[in-house]
Design brief:
The complex is a heterodimer of chains A (306) and B (432). With 306 residues, chain A is an alpha/beta fold. Helix content of chain A is 38%, strand content 24%. The two termini of chain B are 40 Å apart. The chains are: A alpha/beta (306), B mainly alpha (432).
Chain lengths: 306, 432
């Protein structure tokens, strides 16, 4: 669990982060969103003390981060940046082993952990012996994530982690991250510009502007009731309703007392995709099947109902 | 003066070549075998032929009179001429077919490497043959002039120098297209060994240059050691100070400009002037603090020379360190810091290894430059190989000048090759 209590940080005359208080429960994925210059990255760096606060404090698992030795603190927190920052002169395996080596793990334990992590982020064991420049951008990002997870950090801090890769790769990385988080239960704090990324990954959205926290809520709650016009505009303006569809799945709106003919949709399908299928097929109702095998029907009226 | 100007240029050119190879190996290869590559071969051949009428060696009755030139035919005889012509023809043929092979769309890397290796070997053969022929001609001339009482001097002629330079250029150029490091080292070692063998076997003892060397042998070893001492001393002073300046400029880009302006200004002072300018203040300082004089401190001698060399090295060292630090990816440093590396771990594990190749390239340029500049140390009593040059100038003994200049060049080339080998060993992955 991470608690930010009245965090403030000024750079000269401008206030980058202003009286920021936010609690991120264990296992949560919290996305810090907001316009450029809102103080998102600064807030993230205040957590691992790459920037020291002018006021307020950060509690990690109840411990005051300012009281911990800074190097030890950072080794407990995974850190992923947009430019990845792999060490070009080290192999992938050595890169992933960075923090375990800093922590003085035994050699065999490191080797085992590296193997595990390569599999976890979807890379071949053979990739371990390669150098970063021999990998694609997406593979480098995967290595970056593996490196951040190496010492089983309590918290993973990610600063626009997938900003520099193409949309398809980004999507597969997001899926991989979601999958990893589901398996490891790591708390993640994520800075992103990409509202779709935030909606896909986050369990909590925190909207910052001018260094201040304006609203922190679940994606659904924020989309359903944005606290300010600025948030509404940021979340999509007139298209906000379409984004709202991303936050719910077909299963929740399906009438399981009826059935219909045709290839059934998966109950986990997000509603925006359900609408897309309806549009593509020119129908207003589609069959659904959930994991348990129950069959049902979802209609356009069910989708748009609030 | 030639000696002072040539080594740095050699260093820079080879530097650019290494950088080019590291980043665009395939392109460099294609360019090397471009049909346009025929032009330099033709030009070299024309130059080689044009030098034919010039003297291969010059024969003078004594050390102070200028010699009478003797052409290649006269000096080397039909056998020598034939051997030289055959080697040159083989070389030209190989180079031309190599250039023509570029029009084939499939450049066979291994074949090109093999061809370059052969060209280098042939060029080395020509170098050795030229030296051997000149040595033999000298021997013959001295033997013929038995009445001269051993005062006959056989110097190397214009044609010899033209051909030697061409052969060495071809050797160096071809060497760059031989990627495997051991093969390259072997070719260089073979050439050096062949020349040493020639000298050891007494094949060149009658050349005036060799005589000057024989006369000055003890002094030469001293001078070369002294020369290295000056260069080493200059580096010892310049590296920490220049390194600190470069590091500082990299951390605070705004404030470094002033320091660099001063260093730039320093660099524009003519080198002879700087050596002379230091005499005054350093003498005054030594007079003011007599204790310093006991440590060899003073206006003339090794100390001011080392200071002058260090002053010249400051700019390239500072610039080199700054560039090397800038070449370290900022993201890697940021990531390392974010993952909890201490300053020392970051420096030793990330910054230094990533900066090292650039640092060594800087060191190579600086060392070669200082080896050349250290010649001037002789002017203010610091000794070194410059001593031969200035003594030779005073006595109008061209061979003595040549002895100093050639030794300096050899020293610079050796330093260049040694540091180059170190760079290649430390950076085995050129694809980065």
């Amino acid at each position: 669990m991470i608690e930010l209590e009245h965090l403030s940080r000024r750079f000269g005359a401008t206030s980058a982060v202003d009286d920021l208080s936010l609690t991120i429960p264990r296992g949560d994925i919290c996305a810090l969103i907001g316009p450029s210059g809102a103080g998102k990255s600064t807030a993230l760096r205040l957590i691992n003390r790459l920037i020291e606060p002018d006021g307020g404090r950060v509690l990690i698992g109840g411990e005051d981060a300012a009281r911990l030795p800074v190097v030890a603190l950072r080794r407990r927190l995974g850190y992923v940046i947009q430019s990845v920052g792999l060490f070009p002169h080290w192999t992938v395996a050595r890169n992933i082993a960075t923090v375990p080596r800093l922590l003085g793990w035994e050699r065999r334990r490191i080797a085992r952990r590296v193997e595990e992590l390569l599999a976890l982020v979807g890379l071949e064991p053979a990739h371990g012996g390669r150098y970063p420049h021999q990998l694609s951008g997406g593979q480098q990002q995967r290595v970056g994530v593996a490196r951040a997870l190496a010492a089983e950090p309590e918290v993973l801090l990610m600063d626009e982690p997938f900003g520099a890769v193409d949309p398809l790769t980004r999507r597969s990385l997001q899926d991989a991250l979601k999958d990893i988080q589901a398996r490891t239960g790591t708390t993640i704090v994520l800075v992103t510009h990409d509202i779709d990324e935030a909606l896909r990954l986050a369990t909590t959205l925190a909207f910052l502007t001018g260094g201040r926290l304006v609203q922190a809520a679940t994606p659904h709650a924020m989309l359903a009731a944005p606290a300010s016009p600025e948030i509404a505009a940021f979340l999509g303006g007139p298209r906000l309703g379409l984004r709202l569809l991303q936050t719910a799945t077909a299963g929740a709106r399906t009438d399981f007392s009826r059935t219909a003919a045709g290839e059934p949709l998966d109950a986990d399908t997000p509603l925006d995709e359900v609408v897309a299928r309806m549009v593509a097929a020119g129908v207003t109702a589609l069959p659904v099947r959930d994991r348990a095998g129950r069959a049902g029907v979802i209609t356009l009226a069910d989708v748009v109902a609030r | 003066m030639n000696a002072t100007a040539t080594p740095p240029r050699r260093g820079n050119r080879a530097d650019a070549a290494t950088a080019g190879r590291a980043h665009a190996a395939p392109r460099a290869d294609r360019r090397a075998w471009d049909p346009a590559g025929v032009a330099p071969i033709v030009a070299a051949a024309a130059l080689a032929l044009a030098a034919l009428p010039a003297g291969f060696v010059g024969v003078a009755p004594n050390r102070l009179v200028s010699g009478v030139p003797r052409g290649l035919w006269e000096a080397a005889g039909p056998g020598g001429c034939l051997a030289l012509a055959m080697l040159a023809a083989a070389l030209a043929g190989l180079a031309l077919t190599g250039a023509a092979a570029a029009s084939d769309t499939t450049p066979c890397r291994r074949q090109a490497t093999l061809r370059a290796g052969l060209i280098a070997a042939l060029a080395a053969g020509i170098v050795v043959l030229l030296v051997a022929l000149a040595g033999a001609a000298a021997h013959a001339a001295v033997a013929a002039d038995s009445g001269g009482g051993g005062r006959t001097r056989v110097s190397l002629g214009a044609a010899f120098w033209v051909w030697l330079s061409l052969a060495l250029l071809v050797f160096a150029g071809a060497l760059r297209r031989v990627p495997p490091l051991p093969a390259r080292a072997a070719l260089i070692a073979a050439l050096a060994a062949a020349l040493l063998l020639l000298a050891g076997a007494g094949a060149i003892t009658d050349l005036s240059l060799a005589r000057e060397f024989a006369v000055n042998r003890a002094g030469w070893v001293d001078a070369a050691g002294r020369h290295l001492l000056l260069v080493g001393g200059g580096l010892l002073v310049a590296l920490p100070i220049g390194g600190a300046l470069g590091g500082w400029a990299q951390v605070r880009p705004g404030r470094g400009t002033g320091a660099f302006a001063v260093l730039n200004l320093l660099q524009t002072i003519p080198s002879i002037a700087l050596f002379a300018l230091l005499i005054g203040p350093l003498t005054a300082l030594a007079n003011a603090v007599p204790a310093l004089r006991g440590l060899g401190f003073g206006g003339i001698g090794a100390f001011p020379a080392i200071i002058a060399l260090a002053l010249y090295a400051l700019l390239p060292v500072a610039r080199g360190v700054e560039a090397a630090l800038r070449a370290v990816p900022a993201a890697a440093v940021a990531a390392g810091r974010g993952m909890g590396m201490t300053r020392l771990q970051l420096l030793a594990g990330v910054v230094l290894p990533l900066a090292l190749p650039t640092l060594l390239r800087m060191l190579r340029v600086v060392v070669v430059q200082l080896v050349g500049l250290a010649v001037l140390g002789a002017l203010i009593g610091a000794g070194g190989l410059g001593g031969f040059i200035f003594r030779g100038l005073g006595q109008t003994a061209a061979d003595l000048v040549l002895l100093g200049a050639l030794s300096t060049i050899l020293l610079a080339v050796a330093a260049h090759l040694l540091i180059g080998a170190l760079i290649a060993l430390l950076d085995p992955e050129p694809a980065r």
